[in-house]
Every structure is written in C-alpha cells, then in structure tokens.
Design a protein that fits this description.
This protein is mostly beta strands. The chain contains one helix and 24 strands. It has one helix spanning 2-35, and strands at 38-43, 49-54, 57-62, 69-72, 77-80, 86-90, 96-100, 107-110, 117-120, 126-130, 134-138, 145-146, 153-158, 164-174, 180-188, 195-196, 204-208, 214-217, 220-224, 232-236, 241-246, 252-259, 262-269, 276-279.
Length: 280
C-alpha cells in the first residue's frame, strides 16, 4: 500500500510539473507573439498616424508607413485618445501610463494594474482595461471599478456611442488551429446584460467600426453587426491575426498578422481590398 501511494504521489507531482511547464511555455509563446514584435495599432483621430508597439517600445508612424518615430522605450500596448490629446499605454510591468502624443510628459496612472490591453471611452474621460477580468477607471486613474470577474475576459473595445463594450472570452480549450478557443461577447458599459455574439473556433480581438459594426479575428478578418448577425469574411489569411483597428474616417482597417517568427502590421480598405504591409 505504501509503495502504491508513493507511486501515485510521484505521478501526481510529475503531472503537476508538466502542467506548470506547459503553462509557462504557453505564456512565453503569448508574450513573444504579443510583445516581442510589431503589434497593437491604434489610429490618431485624424486617421493620419498610427501608434503601435515594437519590442516593448511604443512607436508612431504615418498612415502610409513613413517617418516611424519612437515615443517610449517602456511600453507594450498603446491607444490614442479619441480627442487626440493623449496616448494611454501599458508598461513592461503591466502598469497603465499616459503621455502626450509626442511622447512627452509620461506619467503612471495605475501601478499594480496587471493590465494586458486597454481602450478609451469615446468621450476620452474613461479607460477600460483587461486584468483578471475587465475594469474601468477615469482617465486620471481614479474611480476604478470592475465590470467582469472572469479572468478569461480580454480585450475590451468601447462602442462609438459609448453604451457598449465588446470583448473576447477564452473557453479554456484549444481550437482546431492550436490556439485558445474564444468567443466575442458584449455588455453594457456598466457591465450589465452580458451576452455572447459568436460561437466559433477562435474569435478574438474585437474592434468597432465608426458606424457601429464589430470586426474580429477568425482565420482572417471578419465583420458583423453589433448583435452578432450578418457575420461575413473580409479577408482570409493563413496566419494568426493579433489585433485590429478601424481608422476614424471609416475608410481603412489596420491589422496585425503573425508572419514567421514576428508580426507585421498591415493596412487595408474597409472592404478588405488593397492590403498594404505598413510595418514589418
């Protein structure tokens, strides 16, 4: 009996060790995909420039790919405020920071945020962010409040009218493409009336169009109505799409595709035509 218990304990410890190694490897893979190459494009309100992350730095580039300029050497995710005055970003230690659009006046808003992604409210007064669920705070870092308690909720995206927040939720199971299965959800801006919009293989990275539709990644770039109806494919790609962003003038979509060991940032027309590699 003692030997059987010892054998069982060894197997259990071995299994736990393998699980921890697998989890650590998965997190490292996600970190490499998200934070060690080009990612997270966000348009300026005049649709003339795009801020993005590059190897844990924040850069800005003209919408035609010219004049790339580094704004910060301590950032993993950035979002341009709709009023055009500020850029919010997530630091290497997952704190939330704010800076002017030229990179000046960098200051920390929320130190122990554990933040992964963030989004501005349309009136630039609030910031929603994912951190073991989805939370929201005032743009000065005050009045923090939690909208969801599900640690699998990621990537909040505020609707143009300010009434809804889209997001994606991981199901805990691998999809047929080997990445985590996830669905697009939506809720009121106060966290109420949560519902799922998709039930696909792997749907993630929602982004609102200025006219109130939702784009998302699913073996390419898809778009649907805000109630989940009329889902249609804009482009099909044999690559993982890591993020999406509509230009405020509604004419173009920036997106990130995993290519080789890194990510490239593309820009295309709103109907999927005229794809152009912006940053490689």
């Amino acid at each position: 009996m003692k030997n059987k218990r010892s054998c069982f304990l060894k197997k259990a410890l071995y299994g736990l060790g393998a699980l921890l190694i697998t989890a650590a490897f998965s997190l490292e893979m996600i970190s490499c995909a998200f934070f060690q190459s080009n990612n997270f494009p966000s348009w300026s309100p005049d649709s003339a420039r795009i801020v993005y992350s590059h190897k844990s730095e924040i850069w800005v580039v003209n919408a035609d790919g010219t004049n790339p300029t580094k704004l910060s050497d301590n950032g993993q995710f950035a979002a341009w405020s709709p009023d055009g005055t500020r850029i919010a970003f997530i630091s290497k230690n997952h704190a939330i920071w704010l800076m002017n659009t030229d990179g000046s006046n960098q200051r920390e808003l929320l130190h122990d945020a554990g933040a992964q992604t963030l989004t501005w409210s349309p009136d630039s007064t609030e910031i929603a962010f994912s951190s073991s669920g989805i939370s929201v705070m005032n743009a000065d870092g005050s009045n923090q409040r939690r909208l969801t308690n599900n640690a699998q909720d990621f990537w909040p995206a505020w609707s143009p009218d300010g009434t809804k927040i889209a997001f994606y939720t991981e199901t805990g199971h691998k999809s047929i493409r080997g990445i985590m299965n996830s669905d697009i959800g939506i809720m009121n801006a106060d966290g109420s009336d949560r519902k799922s919009l998709t039930n696909g293989d792997a749907d993630y990275c929602p982004a609102w169009s200025p006219d109130g539709k939702i784009t998302f990644a699913r073996s390419g770039v898809w778009v649907m109505n805000a109630d989940g109806s009329n889902q249609r494919n804009l482009i099909q790609m044999n690559a993982n799409i890591w993020s999406l962003a509509w230009s405020p003038d509604s004419t173009r979509i920036a997106f990130v595709a995993g290519v080789g060991e890194g990510n490239d940032i593309f820009v295309m027309d709103a109907d999927g035509a005229n794809q152009m590699k912006l940053i490689r």
